[in-house]
Design goal:
The complex is a heterodimer of chains A (about 450) and B (about 325). Chain A is about 45% helix and about 10% strand. Chain A is built from 21 helices and 8 strands. Chain A is globular. By secondary structure, chain B is an all-alpha fold. Chain B folds into 2 domains: about 1-55, no CATH class; about 90-335, MetI-like fold (Orthogonal Bundle). Helix content of chain B is about 75%, strand content about 5%. Classes of the chains: A alpha/beta (about 450), B mainly alpha (about 325).
C-alpha cells in the first residue's frame, strides 16, 4: 500500500518537475521585460564587471581589450564574435524581438542601422559632450534618431577609391603611374566607362571591372534617396522618377555589360579569379584592400588610385551600440566610448587596416603616414584620408533598404552573372520582389 | 489492483502512522485503482507534455501569427484574416520555392533509396574486412552538413569548380551549376545523397541480415541467380524497412534547408530563386523582410504540403504492405 502511495508521489513529483521545466521555459520571455526596468543602476568604477562585446568579421579590438582591462582592473571583457555578419544581424534582431539583452555592447553594420533606429528604445542614449564632434555629420546621422538620440558610436568607415592592376593597364596602353591613373579615373561614371571601352578595345583578355553589382554599390551610395522617400519612408524605387532605375539602365546597357568580368562579388568564382588576370579595376574601400591582398597574396601589380568616378562616397562601416536593458550600461558606455576614441581608432587602422570614421583620426599622422607594401608601397593612409574628407552625405536608408538592396543585387546577378534574364525582364522580377515587401 | 496486493516493503515508519493507514484502507484502495487507471498515462505524459509545449503550441501560435500583420521587431499588428495566405499564394516566388523543394526532394530521395539498397546488398555479401566497408559508408554522415555544402559549393563553382574543369577537359561545355535551375537542383541533391546514402545503407543492411538465410538456400536449390534472389527475396522481405526509409527521407527532403542555404555566399537561393526551398523562403520572409505574418503563412502551407504528401505515402504504404503480406504468405507456402 505504501509502495503505491510512494509511486503515486513519485509520479506526481515527476509531473510537477516537468511543469516546473515548462514554466521555467516560459519565464524566460518574462525575464525580458525585467532589464529595461533595472537599467539605471550604474556600476561604481571599482565594482567587478564582465562586459560582453558582440562583434563580427574583424574589428581589431584584441589588443585594445587587453589595454582596457589593464587600465580598469575591475573590468573583464568577453568577445562574443559571430561567424558571419548576417548571423550577427539576426542575433541583434532576435534580442530586440524578444527584448532580451545578451551582450553589453553590440556591433552593427551601417546597413542595419535603419532597422535599429526603428527600435531605438532598445538602445541606450550615448550622446555626450566628449563624442559630440567625434564623427562627421553623415556618419553620426546614421546612428541618430529623428528626435536626436545617438544610439551608436561609429567605428570604421569605407571611403571608396579605385584599385587597379598596373600590368593590365600597361598592356592596354593606359598610364600606370598612380597620379596619372587618379586623374584618368576622376570625373563622371561616363568617363569611367569610356576609359573602360579603351581598355576593352586593346583586347588584353581581361575585363574592366568584376561585376556590375559591385559598381552599383558605389553608384547607389552616391544617390541621396535611392529607394525610399526620406520624408515618408515610402518605397519610390519603382515609380516613374525612380532614382535607382537610371543607374540600373546604365549598368545593364550592352556597352557596360561588355566591360564586365561577369563574376558575382563574394562568389567562389570571384574569390578564385583574383589569382588570374580577370579584371583591371575595382571599387576599393579600405576594407577591400585587405580582401584583395588576402585573395591574391602573390600578385604584386595591384595599386590604389586616389579617385572615385561620380564623386566621393562611403561604402560600409560599423557602429557600437549599448542595449538599454543591460546589467552594466554605464560601464559598457565607457568601454564603447574608449574603443571608438580617435586615438584607439588610429591604432586599429595602423595594425588591422580598418579605416577610422572619427574626423580627428583620419588626419592623425600615424594614419596618413601608413603605406601598404602590397599595393606597391601606396600611401593608403593618405589616399583614404583624401577620399574621406570630401564625403558629405550618405544615401537615405529607410526601413526597406536592406531587402530592396538585396533584390536589386539579385537583379544584377541575373543579367550579369547568371545571364538568365535581359535587362527588362530582370527589372520586372525586381519589381515583383519589391511589391512583395509591402 | 495487482500492485495493492503485493506486500509493502518494510520501511522506517512510526507505528502510529501504520495505524492510520489501516484505518484508511478505503482510501488506499481508491489510490490503487487510480494507480492502475492513471499510471500508464502519467508514464507517457512527459512526452506529450513536452510535445504540447514545444510542438503543438508553436504550431497553433504560428497559426495565430499567420492571420496578423506581424513585424519581427515591432511585434503584433492588425488582424488581417487570410490576407497573408492569399498574398503568398499569388507570389511567384512561393511557387518557385515549392517547385524547387519537390524537385530537389525527388532528385535526392529516389536515387538515394536505390543506391542505398544496392550498396547494402553488396555489403551483405561475404566481403573481406566487412566492418571496414560498413563503417566506411557511414563516414559522409559524420561530416557536418555545412562543411559538405562548402566543399560541394567549391566543386560545383560555375567557372573555377573542379567538376566544370573536368567537363571542359573532356570537351564538353561547362554547366551552370549555380545559375541554371535543374543543374543547381542536381548539385544540391548530390550533397544530400552524399550525406544520407550511407546512413540508409546501414538501415537496409541491418534489415537484410535479419532475412532468414534458408530462403536464399532454397532459392539457390531452385536455381535462382543472385539478381533473381535480390528481387524476389531481398526486396520483398525489406518492404517495411523501405517504407520507413521513404517516410523519413520524405520528411527530411521537404524540410531541406542547410544545403541550399550554404550553396552560395548569400544563402538566398540564387538570384532568380533557382534553388530557393520553402524553408529558405520562410527564413527569408521572417528574417530578411521581417514579415513574420507572411513567414508563418508559408510555414502553415508547408505543413499542409507535408501532410498531403504523407497521406499519399500512407496510401501507397498500405498497398505495398498488403501486397507484401500476400507475397509473404505465398512464399511461406513455397518454402514449406
Amino acid at each position: 500500500m505504501r509502495k503505491t502511495t510512494r509511486k503515486f508521489l513519485a509520479v506526481t513529483a515527476g509531473v510537477a518537475s516537468i511543469a516546473l521545466l515548462a514554466s521555467a521555459c516560459s519565464s524566460d520571455s518574462g525575464d525580458g521585460d525585467k532589464p529595461s526596468g533595472s537599467s539605471s543602476a550604474s556600476a561604481p568604477s571599482d565594482e567587478k564587471v564582465t562586459l560582453k562585446v558582440a562583434t563580427f568579421n574583424e574589428f581589431g579590438y584584441a589588443d585594445l581589450y587587453e589595454e582596457y582591462m589593464k587600465l580598469h582592473p575591475n573590468v573583464t571583457i568577453v568577445n562574443d564574435k559571430a561567424d558571419t555578419s548576417d548571423n550577427a544581424r539576426a542575433a541583434v534582431q532576435n534580442s530586440i524581438a524578444t527584448n532580451t539583452v545578451v551582450d553589453d555592447i553590440v556591433a552593427a553594420d551601417s546597413d542595419w542601422m535603419p532597422e535599429l533606429i526603428a527600435s531605438s528604445d532598445f538602445f541606450a542614449d550615448l550622446g555626450s559632450d566628449t563624442v559630440k564632434d567625434r564623427w562627421p555629420a553623415w556618419k553620426s546621422q546614421l546612428s541618430t534618431t529623428a528626435d536626436g538620440k545617438l544610439i551608436g558610436y561609429g567605428t570604421d568607415s569605407g571611403p571608396e577609391a579605385v584599385c587597379y592592376r598596373k600590368d593590365l593597364f600597361k598592356k592596354a596602353g593606359l598610364p600606370t603611374d598612380r597620379a596619372e591613373v587618379s586623374k584618368l579615373l576622376e570625373g563622371s561614371w561616363d568617363n569611367y566607362f569610356t576609359q573602360g571601352q579603351k581598355f576593352m578595345d586593346a583586347k588584353t583578355g581581361a575585363a574592366w571591372f568584376d561585376s556590375i553589382g559591385a559598381l552599383s554599390q558605389g553608384m547607389i551610395n552616391q544617390l541621396e534617396a535611392p529607394f525610399e522617400d526620406p520624408s515618408t519612408d515610402e518605397i519610390t524605387v519603382l515609380g516613374a522618377d525612380s532614382k535607382a532605375k537610371p543607374v540600373y539602365d546604365l549598368l545593364t546597357s550592352d556597352k557596360v555589360l561588355g566591360q564586365s568580368a561577369h563574376l558575382g562579388q563574394w562568389s567562389q568564382d570571384w574569390t578564385d579569379a583574383f589569382k588570374g588576370d580577370k579584371w583591371a579595376t575595382m571599387l576599393c574601400p579600405p576594407w577591400m584592400t585587405q580582401i584583395i591582398a588576402g585573395n591574391a597574396p602573390d600578385q604584386t601589380e595591384w595599386d590604389v588610385a586616389d579617385a572615385l568616378p561620380g564623386g566621393a562616397s562611403n561604402w560600409g562601416g560599423s557602429f557600437l551600440l549599448v542595449p538599454e536593458g543591460g546589467k552594466n550600461v554605464e560601464a559598457a558606455k565607457q568601454l564603447a566610448d574608449w574603443l571608438t576614441d580617435p586615438k584607439q581608432a588610429a591604432a586599429v587602422f595602423v595594425k588591422y587596416g580598418n579605416f577610422p570614421s572619427q574626423t580627428a583620426a583620419t588626419t592623425d599622422p600615424s594614419v596618413t603616414g601608413k603605406t601598404d607594401a602590397y599595393f606597391g608601397g601606396a600611401p593608403t593612409g593618405q589616399i583614404f584620408s583624401n577620399r574621406f574628407a570630401p564625403i558629405e552625405k550618405q544615401p537615405y536608408r529607410g526601413s526597406h533598404y536592406f531587402p530592396i538592396n538585396q533584390a536589386l543585387s539579385d537583379a544584377y546577378t541575373r543579367v550579369d552573372v547568371d545571364k538568365t534574364d535581359d535587362s527588362a525582364s530582370s527589372w520586372k522580377k525586381f519589381e515583383q520582389a519589391v511589391k512583395d515587401l509591402s | 489492483m495487482t500492485s495493492t496486493r503485493t506486500p509493502a516493503a518494510p520501511g522506517p515508519t512510526a507505528s502510529d502512522e501504520r495505524d492510520r493507514q489501516q484505518r484508511r484502507v478505503g482510501f488506499s484502495q481508491k489510490l490503487g485503482r487510480w494507480d492502475v487507471k492513471l499510471s500508464p498515462y502519467l508514464y507517457i505524459s512527459p512526452f506529450f507534455i513536452l510535445f504540447v509545449v514545444v510542438g503543438l503550441f508553436p504550431l497553433l501560435y504560428t497559426g495565430v501569427v499567420s492571420v496578423h500583420q506581424w513585424d519581427l521587431l515591432k511585434g503584433k499588428g492588425d488582424f488581417v484574416g487570410f490576407e497573408n495566405f492569399s498574398t503568398v499564394l499569388q507570389a511567384p516566388i512561393f511557387w518557385k520555392s515549392v517547385r524547387n523543394t519537390i524537385s530537389i526532394f525527388l532528385l535526392s530521395s529516389i536515387p538515394q533509396v536505390i543506391l542505398a539498397l544496392v550498396i547494402a546488398a553488396l555489403l551483405d555479401a561475404n566481403l573481406r574486412a566487412k566492418t571496414f566497408w560498413r563503417m566506411g559508408v557511414l563516414v559522409p554522415y559524420v561530416v557536418a552538413p555545412v562543411a559538405v555544402s562548402l566543399i560541394f559549393g567549391q566543386m560545383f563553382a560555375d567557372q573555377s569548380g573542379i567538376i566544370n574543369q573536368i567537363l571542359r577537359n573532356l570537351g564538353f561545355t561547362g554547366i551552370g551549376w549555380h545559375s541554371e535551375v535543374l543543374p543547381s537542383h542536381i548539385a544540391i541533391a548530390s550533397m544530400v545523397n552524399f550525406r544520407w546514402t550511407g546512413y540508409n545503407t546501414l538501415i537496409f543492411l541491418a534489415a537484410m541480415q535479419a532475412i532468414p538465410r534458408d530462403l536464399y538456400e532454397a532459392a539457390l536449390i531452385d536455381g535462382a541467380n543472385r539478381v533473381r534472389q535480390f528481387f524476389s527475396i531481398t526486396i520483398p522481405m525489406l518492404r517495411p524497412t523501405i517504407i520507413f526509409v521513404i517516410i523519413t527521407s520524405t520528411i527530411g527532403g521537404l524540410q531541406i534547408f542547410d544545403e541550399p542555404r550554404m550553396f552560395d555566399q548569400f544563402g538566398r537561393g540564387g538570384a532568380d530563386q533557382q534553388y530557393l526551398t520553402v524553408t529558405n523562403y520562410i527564413y527569408q520572409l521572417g528574417w530578411t523582410n521581417k514579415n513574420f505574418g507572411r513567414a508563418a503563412a508559408v510555414a502553415w502551407l508547408l505543413f499542409l504540403l507535408i501532410l498531403a504528401i504523407s497521406v499519399v505515402n500512407y496510401l501507397i504504404t498500405r498497398r505495398i504492405a498488403s501486397e507484401g503480406g500476400a507475397k509473404q504468405k505465398k512464399r511461406k507456402k513455397v518454402s514449406a
